[in-house]
Design brief:
Shape: elongated
Distance between the termini: 68 Å
Order of helices and strands: HHHH
Helix content: 55-70%
Largest sheet: none
Strand content: under 5%
Number of helices: 4
Structural class: mainly alpha
Radius of gyration: 22 Å
Oligomer: single chain
Length: about 160
């Protein structure tokens, strides 16, 4: 009958041994902790940029202020924010790929199982599967950039 296949990679799934190699559990714990720290840093960066962008939008309503300067700064910051989010996404993807590789040597694979469930479960009729946070997250700087572009166009 053959070996079970990983649906995303079309290669045999490695099966875990009953006794993982010495030190593997500690490496796994460290990898998960590091991935969590990257997520926390991304959250902090989002909070910073959201605060700055919201402040810039509020400044657009101040009479006599140079809207072109504010809007230009907003566009530049929105671009920087979007690029930073893309970098965090790439870093997180690499970290989770490494965690997945480690997990395949363990008796339980909670993150692999969780992701498989999210990928195959249709959420709504208009969205065939789980919408990743990164997509929605990267949309926010684009919306702010659009606000500032409209402001520049109107002024």
């Amino acid at each position: 009958m053959g070996e079970p296949q990983d649906p995303d990679r079309r290669r045999p799934i490695e099966t875990a041994s009953a006794d993982p190699p010495a030190g593997l559990i500690e490496q796994y714990k460290l990898a998960v902790e590091m991935a969590d720290r990257v997520s926390a840093r991304r959250g902090s960066a989002n909070g910073f940029f959201l605060t700055v962008q919201t402040t810039l939008v509020a400044l657009l309503a101040v009479p006599g202020i140079q809207q072109a300067w504010i809007a230009s700064a907003g566009i530049i910051l929105a671009g920087a924010w979007w690029l930073l989010l893309r970098s965090y996404r790439e870093l997180a993807s690499a970290k989770w790929a490494a965690i997945e590789k480690l997990e395949r040597c363990l008796p339980a694979q909670p993150f692999i199982d969780e992701w498989e469930l999210l990928k195959k479960d249709p959420v709504k009729w208009w969205r065939p599967r789980y919408a990743e946070l990164g997509f929605a997250e990267r949309l926010v700087p684009v919306v702010f950039a659009a606000i500032f572009i409209v402001t520049l166009s109107a002024g």
